[in-house]
Design brief:
Elements (H helix, E strand, L loop, with lengths): L2 H12 L10 H29 E2 L4 E2 L12 H7 L1
Antiparallel strand pairs: 1-2
Helix pairs in contact: 1-2
Length: about 80
């Protein structure tokens, strides 16, 4: 377990956040780490989309196709947890 996840687990336990859902603190920490990892991946996909398809500021479109073959599938999201 990495330091962040250990500290997050400890923080969840310290404030008894796990009592709200009756879920062990380490499982909540794993879930939250997964959310952060998934969010980072989505941000990267958004940047890839905007840089290849159009500039959102200038609304200038190009004709090059966008490669979305490396997008998240439902299976890859579930495996994160």
């Amino acid at each position: 377990m990495n330091d962040f996840k250990k500290e997050l687990t400890s923080l969840i336990n310290k404030y008894s956040i796990e009592n709200n859902s009756n879920t062990p603190d380490f499982i909540l920490a794993r879930y939250l780490q997964g959310c952060l990892d998934l969010f980072a991946n989505i941000i990267q996909q958004r940047q890839k989309w905007y840089s290849r398809s159009f500039s959102p500021e200038a609304k200038v479109y190009n004709s090059s196709p966008v490669d979305l073959t490396n997008t998240l599938s439902e299976d890859s999201i579930i495996k994160t947890f």
